[in-house]
């Protein structure tokens, strides 16, 4: 069932245009309609006064990205917390704040317990974003959006992550519409962007030969830093997690503006620095953060898009996606960091689909 692929992770990375198209299908049909989230969704979502997202690992990073979309588009406050932390603290609660759990498997114990805890604190509405039908977490929720990624077998999450992101973007747009913050023209434009997304993701997949070449250099490293800003900071986090999980190279991610508050001390010739730098409002800031790295001898590996106008120079390597895709850009930029981790793992000879010490579904504390 691997077909032409060597590993499930590779197969699942390449399935993303289809997984995204399948997940988006109903959205393109209905528009940003509450019905996408279940029967009682229109009434429940209309009451929402804030959003509390709970998840673990890669799913948590999807949640971090959603915070940028939700606060910018809906005017609602959005908080994102790691489920295993939330469940053990005296959290502030509001009955009309929507609990959103994100879980590929729908069985992650900490996420399930965080949901139960949120209920006990009085939250009235809970939405699950999940890839496995009828699993525990959606069953315990009032509303559900199933991502249609298909079975994800590789331990490192790939297609589940990008489909979670479109589900969360759909939630942001739907809440915005319910609150009168999405004009018909804007809705049509966002739906067009969603329609174009699988094609843009395919363009990113086509960068694989260039990323493969970079990965050979990474395989010999002991550490790596990932930088991003704004919407692309969670993608830097995801890139660092993918690299750690399957190559066992130590990697950390920072919002690029934090560099000078500590991590810059780590930068020297031996430290590769991956930068997620498409053309967004913070690009000029990112460019000056990159100069801070170059000045200390750090080698930069930059994922950009055609509009960010980078060229290769001494110690600066650039891979560009063909065009800037606006507000969905983090979804497209998840692809190159997945491919980088995958090819670096191959070069190191690690077990890509079953990294040491990790399980696909974490049903213990
Ligand atoms: C990383 C990874 C994990 C999961 C986490 C949550 O590649 O797969 O970090 O994202 O264990 O799992 P789910 O989404 O099933 O709750």
Give the % helix: 40-55%
Cα distance spanning the termini:
32 Å
Mean pLDDT over the residues: 96
Unreliable parts: none
Please give the largest β-sheet: 5 strands, parallel
The number of distinct helices, counting runs of at least 4 residues, comes to 13
Number of strands: 10
Widest beta sheet: strand line-up: 2-1-3-4-5
* Chemical compounds bound to the protein: fructose -6-phosphate
How do the helices and strands follow one another from N- to C-terminus?
A: HHHEHEHEHEHEHHHEHEEHEEH
The helix-and-strand class reads alpha/beta
Oligomeric state as shown: single chain
Shape: globular
Q: Using the CA coordinates, give the radius of gyration.
A: 20 Å
Strand residue content: 15-25%
Structure keywords:
aminotransferase; 365 residues; binds fructose -6-phosphate; five-stranded parallel beta sheet; transferase; alpha/beta; 16% strand; glutamine amidotransferase
Question: What's the short story on this structure?
Answer:
It is an enzyme of class 2 (transferase). By secondary structure, the protein is α/β, with parallel strands linked by helices.
């Amino acid at each position: 069932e691997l077909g032409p692929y060597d590993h499930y992770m590779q197969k699942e990375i390449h399935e993303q245009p289809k997984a995204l198209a399948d997940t988006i299908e109903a959205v393109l049909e209905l528009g940003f309609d509450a019905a996408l989230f279940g029967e009682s969704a229109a009434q429940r979502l209309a009451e929402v006064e804030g959003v509390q997202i709970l998840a673990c690992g890669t799913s948590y990073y999807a949640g971090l990205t959603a915070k940028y979309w939700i606060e910018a588009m809906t005017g609602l406050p959005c908080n994102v917390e790691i489920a295993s932390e939330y469940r053990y603290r005296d959290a502030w609660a509001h009955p009309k704040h929507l609990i959103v759990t994100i879980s590929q498997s729908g069985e992650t114990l900490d996420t399930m317990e965080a949901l139960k805890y949120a209920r006990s604190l009085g939250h009235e509405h809970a939405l699950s974003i999940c890839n496995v039908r009828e699993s525990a977490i959606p069953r315990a929720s009032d509303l559900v959006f199933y991502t249609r990624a298909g079975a994800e077998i590789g331990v490192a999450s790939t297609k589940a992550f990008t489909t979670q992101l479109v589900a969360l973007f759909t939630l942001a747009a739907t809440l915005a519409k319910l609150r009168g913050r999405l004009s018909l023209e804007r809705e049509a434009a966002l739906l067009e962007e969603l329609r174009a997304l699988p094609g843009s993701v395919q363009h990113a997949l086509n960068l694989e030969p260039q990323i493969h070449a970079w990965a050979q250099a990474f395989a010999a490293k002991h550490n790596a830093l990932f930088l991003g800003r704004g919407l692309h900071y969670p993608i830097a986090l995801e890139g660092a997690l993918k690299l750690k999980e399957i190559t066992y190279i130590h990697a950390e991610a920072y919002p690029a503006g934090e560099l000078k508050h500590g991590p810059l001390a780590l930068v020297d010739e031996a430290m590769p620095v991956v930068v997620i730098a498409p053309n967004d409002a913070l690009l000029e800031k990112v460019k000056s953060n990159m100069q801070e790295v170059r000045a200390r001898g750090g080698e930069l590996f930059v994922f950009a898009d055609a509009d960010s106008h980078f060229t290769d120079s001494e110690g600066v390597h650039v891979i560009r996606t063909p065009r800037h895709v606006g507000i969905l850009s983090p979804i497209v930029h998840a692809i190159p960091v997945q491919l980088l981790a995958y090819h670096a793992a191959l070069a190191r000879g690690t077990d890509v689909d079953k990294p040491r010490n990790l399980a696909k579904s974490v049903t213990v504390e």
